[in-house]
N-acetyltransferase domain-containing protein
Amino acid sequence: MALPSVAAPMLDAAIIHEKPTSSAAAKAALPTAPTKDSGVRVVAPHEYKEAAACLAEAFRLDNIVRYAIDTPDRMHLTEEQRFEMHQSAMEYVTYAHCLQGLVLTTGNNFDCVALWLPPGKNIDDWLTLLRSGMWRLSWKLSKEGRVRFFDEFLPLLHHSKQEILGDRDNTSWYLNYIGTKPEARGRGYARKLIEYVTKMADAEGLPCYLESSHDINIIIYGKLGFELRKHIYLQRAAGKELRLDVMVREPVDKQKEKD
């Protein structure tokens, strides 16, 4: 679980004039309609609100996802008002991933949604910030929210990813968000959306990276090949530290497994 990968937005010409890569080709080949074997499909840009609604509901009670919204200087707002801000943020981030990343869904009606960034991709260039509406966060968040988001949260995630992956930072798949509607949990949807990408990562010999905000996820992601690498902490919440678990899945050589 994460948001944009760096704190300061930069215009990266490589994003606009990018040469095709194997990951880009793989993304282009992914189905926009559910496949018979997996039921997984790519979310089109015009569907971003439906996908974002799934994530907003999935993370409704998540203290880390709402870290920049549920601030002391926003407690005068009702829960409904703060949830609207939370949902708007999910819409911006989801649309940004539709533009630059890979948004997957499965189930009958956006029951589970995953936001992936393929190798070499990010969502913090100026064009994506403008088109997705993410620039609005700079004035929609409160003063404390901006400090938490831009000065603490984003730099922490960015530096941790660089530290852990090193030279492989730009050649990894990054799972920014994955969430399932409460009523659709327990059906294996999240596994489908993760394995859909890990199969591509294995074929390319690339690692997958994520941050998780719940203890139980260490076990769940562990069953999918992810290993815990580090705990990182957000420290501006009054009276408590909020922990994120950083996990990495190394590529699996299927041929060696057979041998």
Q: What stands out?
A: Residues 2-29 have pLDDT under 50 and may be disordered.
